[in-house]
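Data card: per-record layout.
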Amino acid sequence: MRRVLITGALGQIGSELTVAMREIYGKQNVIASSRSASEGQQDLIESGPFEVIDVTDGERIAEVVKQYKVDTIVHLAAILSAVGEQNPALAWDVNINGLYNVLEVAKEEGCAVCTPSSIAVFGDSTPKDNTPQDTIQRPSTMYGITKVTGELLCDYYYLKYGVDTRGVRFPGLISYATLPGGGTTDYAVHIYYDALKHKRYSSFIAEGTKMDMMYMPDALMAISTLLEANPDKLIHRNAFNITAMSFAPEHIAAEIKKHIPEFEMTYDVDPVRQAIADSWPNSLDDSAAREEWGWNPKYDLASMTTDMLEKLRVKLGL
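The structure for this 318-residue chain is written out next.
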């Protein structure tokens, strides 16, 4: 049975992954951590072991790993794309120095490491459609730069020190449970809330801007499946393209209108986030993940929209 430490456990992915992994490995075998004990997440904090960890503090990571005899670190703590452009120095510190600290502890304590990368590793010079698994990576954001660096760093620790590192390039993630934390694809979550509460939404991403997306249940399944995959079959290890759907704002609006006919969408484009979106792929080739560890998402835009609206109606008391 694994003993798992999850960094960034109170974030968009971590808050749901912690619950899912406690169901798989047992509550006492999954240690949630965050840089603070947020009052808004008390149920999660009290549902099993929780420790305050700032990932830029390597000694603190090592202390917790030794205390709980951790053998696997799922490293989610990161500064996302839009926030990273506002504070690039912070993005570099958390995303790179934090990952370096995790890898150093893993090397010394014999831990496996699973950490996500992102479609942000690609840039304007990358093929836009059906973006290959192995292709040019020249991102124009600090977030993207840190993610490319992170992929290479994880490769290095695997090849140089034998650390069992694994990761996926996540597209935009959509969840009813937790709001996103400052990414370029956040509109695809906010639109559902506003559709239910106000019957309208103003998109900060322009019409026609296609990006890859994924429903959170598929994202959680991706991490747990990759974590348990046969290492002998993993060729790419730290940088698997994965995707479930690709759409532009008008496509998700049209799907919502099938459920809420009076829904209307307008546009108030944010030039910073639009520039980031324009540098990312329209769609990804995820054949390597399918071949090497059986990646197979369950949700498309239609089934995700149905489930999102049903779950949010309950959550919002509508």
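Known properties of this structure: The mean pLDDT is 95. Residues 88-109 form the longest helix (22 residues).

See the next section for split statistics.
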